[in-house]
Structure formats: C-alpha cells, structure tokens
Amino acid sequence: MNLTALKGNERVKEQLSQQERRRGLSHAYILSGPGGSGRHTLVRLLAAGLLCDSRGEKPCGQCGSCLKVGKGVHPDVSVIAGPGKGKSITVDQVRALRSDAYIRPNEGSRKVYLLEDADQMNASAQNAMLKLLEEGPRYASFLLIANNADALLETVRSRCEELDLLPAGRPAEAAGGPERSELVSRMANALEGTDELKLLEMAGEFTAESGRSAYPAERAGGGAVRQSGPEGRGEPSSAGGGAGKAAERRGPAQSEWQSAVRLAVRGNV
Ligand SMILES: [Zn+2]
Fold it and tell me: 253 alpha carbon to ligand 1 midpoint, in Å?
C-alpha cells in the first residue's frame, strides 16, 4: 500500500501493507491516537485505497477515484460526525447510515463510511453500529476515528482491526535503532516497578542520546495521551505525589523528560 503521505507510524504502515498483501484490507478499522497523529491522513488514504481503480499500488493518487477522495467529493465516501460541536454521533444517525449502506455504491465497487469521534458514541449508537459491523453489506467499509479505542465497546472493537497512531517524530519512533529500543524497554521495566530514581537516571541517559530537539515542546501539552500527569508540563504540584516532589528537586527540565519518557514507553510497550 502506498502510505507515504502518513508521517512516521511505520508499524501501522507495515501492518496495513502486510494485511493488504495477504488477505486484503479489512471491512472495519478503528484509527486511534491523539490529534496530530495522522488519523485523518490515514483515513483518507484508506478510503482512497479501498476505492482506487489502479491495478498497481494503491492508492495511486492519480485515478479518478483517488482524486475525488482527495477532494472530499467521492459519492461513495460518507463522513459521519455528531450533529453539532461537542456532540457525538447519535443512534438515529447510525440508523440512517445503516439504511444508506444497503443502497449499492454509486460509482465505485465499495461504500466507505468515516465516523468521527466514534469513541464518543453512547452505548445505543455503538450497538446499532455493531449490527452493521457484523452483518452489513459486503461492499461497505467502516473507518472509526477515535481518540481512545478503550472507550469503545469490546464487542465493537472485536469486529474491527485497530490501528494505533502516534504523533510522528516522537523520540522512541524518531530515533529508532536497537540501542534505543533496549533503553525504552528498560524504562518500561523501571516504570512498572515505579523505581522513580532509576527512571530519572535513564531519562538523563535518554536526553544525552537524543538531544532535546527530538521532542518539540508542543508535544508536551494537550491531547489525551499527553495528559500524563501534573508534573508533565514542568509545573510540579503536590497532587503529583512522589513524582511531583522528585521533579521539584531536579527542576523542570528533568520533569519534562520524565513526561517524555512516559510517552516513549507508552509507544513501545
Ligand atoms: Zn487511484
């Protein structure tokens, strides 16, 4: 599959390319990750890949289908979002989607549905979706965009392939290499044992190896994954418990790296 437009996320690219080669793309995916991780880029690539007319690598980016998907005007691609800002997709919207899904495609061989903030749907909407995932028409594909796949019902998750995206250039992924993996895995062990001093020591090692430029400040704030704790922004607070106090002793730079280490570890375990 041609997924070069998606930055980073090599594991997801490999997962999809292998799947396409072996058994073809799945009829349902959950694309989860924080804002800025490339979910919307990937969802467009998948939609184009599913509808692409090329006989070569898909999506080709040049055929009529790919161009229409790129412009957001393909008649067989529907984007479903909640009825207003901050509102999630309703059960009525899912029912309407279901009726639409049984009308055959207009010009492509498939119909593709993109569901925004799918993890915000309530249980009724998710259950209505479940029926479609289980017994929808063969030509229908569903791409569920989520901040946090854990918020979806297990029954829904079990019927979809999960694609976990990370913001491109995160230290663990940007740097790569066996030494880095080894370091990250040691950090993961230290985290499990909550051996804070050891972890901070390693954070120093991590800093020395990668340099601060590998971790732009913008990635330290906002988004579900990034809210790793009150000490994460270099503002130690008593609510942070032991970690907060340790961060205070070692200053804000260490504290920022402590947060970076957590992010790195989450991306690797
Ligand atoms: Zn194409």
Answer: 47
Q: Three-class SS of residue 269? A: coil
The span from the CA of 197 to the CA of 69, in Å, is: 51
Residue 46 CA to ligand 1 center (angstroms) comes to: 11
Nearest to 31 by CA among 144, 118, 115, 116: 144
- C-alpha 51 to ligand 1 mean position (Å): 7
Q: Give 24 Cα–ligand 1 centroid separation in angstroms.
A: 16
Beta strands in the chain (DSSP E): 28-32, 77-80, 111-115, 140-146, 161-164
Residue range 196-207, pLDDT digits in tens = 555 556 556 555
What is the Å distance from ligand 1's center to 141 Cα?
17
Cα angle 208-212-218, degrees, rounded to a multiple of 5: 155
Indicate if the pLDDT at residue 257 is higher than 70.
Answer: no
Distance 67 CA to ligand 1 centre (A): 7
Can you give the pLDDT at residue 233?
41
What's the CA-to-centroid distance between 55 and ligand 1, angstroms?
Answer: 9
At 56, list the tokens.
């070569």
Cα of 234 vs centre of ligand 1, distance in Å, is 47
Q: Domain ranges for the chain, please list them.
A: 10-164, 178-266
Buried b (16+ CB within 10 A) or exposed e, 135-147: ebeebbbbbbbbb
DSSP per position, 94-148: HHHHHHHHTSPPSSSS-EEEEETTGGG--HHHHHHHHHHHHHS-TTEEEEEEES-
Calculate how far, in angstroms, residue 43's C-alpha sits from the geometric centre of ligand 1.
Answer: 15
Mean pLDDT in residue range 75-85: 96
Second CATH level (architecture) for the domain 10-164: 3-Layer(aba) Sandwich (3.40)
